[in-house]
Amino acid sequence: MSTRGRRVGAETPAFVWVGAVLALLFLLLPLAGLLRRVAWSGIFDSVTSGPASEALRLSFITSVFATMIALLLGLPLAWVLARIDFRGRSMVRALVMLPMVLPPVVGGVALLGAYGKSHGLIGGWLFDIFGLQLTFSPLGVVIAEAFVALPFLVMAVESGFRSIDPRFEESAATMGLGPSMRFWKVTLRLLAPSLIAGVAVAWARALGEFGATITFAGNIEGRTQTTPLAVYLLLESDPEAAYALSFVLLAVCIAVLIAMRGSWMGRRS
Amino acid sequence: MSVLLKGTVHQGRLILDIDIVAGDEVVAISGVNGIGKTTFLRVLAGLLPLDTGILQVNGKVLDDVDHQLFVPAHMRNVGMVFQDNVLLPFLSVLENVAYPILSTAMSRQQARQQAIDALTDHGVGHLASMKPAQLSGGQQQRVALVRSLINKPQMVLLDEPLSALDADARRDMRNLLLGQLKTLPGTKFIVTHDRLDIAELCDREIAFTQPQSGALGDETQTTIVR
């Protein structure tokens, strides 16, 4: 439209521009500061040696397992929330979303309350019967990360379920596809973009987890010290490594944003 | 007699009260919007169970509330075409049409060949390798019709198959249906508002009607189908 921006009501007051630019600067300035401090020439050595490489390795493994747990548990939960009408559904949804707004440290304390070996709700029982100790173990890191990542996955996949036109599955039924075939061949395929977005955002959240991890699993180098914890510690002893690790996390998050953008705009189907 | 349906189904504020018998014929379903025409087709397709009564097709009971018997959609062998395109967007035209017969005993190669033959017979063989999004509305409906018939269904359900099409595509599709419907075995139900469709395509018409609602404040609307 050639008269764009000239309609009455579409004129943008000056203070909007000023505010918008300030907001953008506010968000971008720290990123610029981070990038400026990265020692590019030594970045490879920084992240492939010492505690930094240990932390990256641990973070990668635990976040992948945490994302798998979030996917396996989150997909059925998203299904139930999106498609089954039951009393108290909005209540359940609110509870599911709670870890998204809960301070992560509180999440960690809550996990201790549930799985702590001596005082947890089922922690002692897990230890007595299975010899499982979650606290201060890599498994505890996975649990903490999955706890904070799961709601993100559920949210993305639930909205994915809601956006599927039910007539696709109904027509598949009239084509002779039974319930499980319909799920694997039709529903899951239509759900793929949301699944990818959900997995990406859950993984990014798991990778960046700090508060719940340090509270519940501790900060043991090579065992429970994930990348965010290492960044925090290295800032004192080896700032160069801290900035290098921060850059790695930043790059991963940008990649995740790109992956989600592609799927949300439906380019993958 | 081919289709015997006597029963009721509740959908929100709507109650459908049905008592019909249909043979090997093309039956027009008419009535104003929201009166329950699509609901009626969904009951026949097995996408919606009856709340009371019984449905019998070709002597086989598909839904019997009293005896807690319900044959789900995927085991009914019906062909259904919806108002607008519901071809699976991630499959090609050929794969869409071959899908219903892939689960049967024939080989993959046979299924594909049969799908190509069916597409060619309906004048859309050249579209086989395209994705649904690349087709016009008329082409999509044509392919949807081919897909619904490929399994040799015992009953065909067409939910306003022409209403989303422009005038030219509508005429083409009507001609296609004209050639197809009368020769197919089984009962064919076609939901339509169009008098021309009813006159040209159908053997008879079942008009859905709602008697004046009863007591003031009565929330439900009953649709009578006879």
TrEMBL record, chain A:
Pfam families, alphabetized: BPD_transp_1 (PF00528)
Protein's UniProt keywords contain Transmembrane: yes
Keywords: Membrane, Molybdenum, Sulfate transport, Transmembrane, Transmembrane helix, Transport
Compartments, as annotated in UniProt: Membrane
A GO CC term attached to the entry: plasma membrane
Membrane topology note: Multi-pass membrane protein
Matches recorded under PANTHER family: SULFATE TRANSPORT SYSTEM PERMEASE PROTEIN (PTHR30406), SULFATE TRANSPORT SYSTEM PERMEASE PROTEIN CYST (PTHR30406:SF8)
NCBIfam families listed in its UniProt record: Mo_ABC_porter (TIGR01581), modB_ABC (TIGR02141)
Protein name: Unannotated protein
Native species: freshwater metagenome
TrEMBL record, chain B:
Native source organism of the sequence: freshwater metagenome
Protein name: Unannotated protein
InterPro entries referenced in this protein's UniProt entry, alphabetically: AAA+_ATPase, ABC_SmlMolc_Importer, ABC_transporter-like_ATP-bd, ABC_transporter-like_CS, P-loop_NTPase
SMART domains referenced in this protein's UniProt entry, alphabetically: AAA
One Pfam family this sequence matches: ABC_tran
Record-linked Gene3D superfamilies: P-loop containing nucleotide triphosphate hydrolases
Taxonomic lineage: unclassified sequences, metagenomes, ecological metagenomes
A GO molecular-function descriptor: ATP hydrolysis activity
UniProt KW Nucleotide-binding keyword: yes
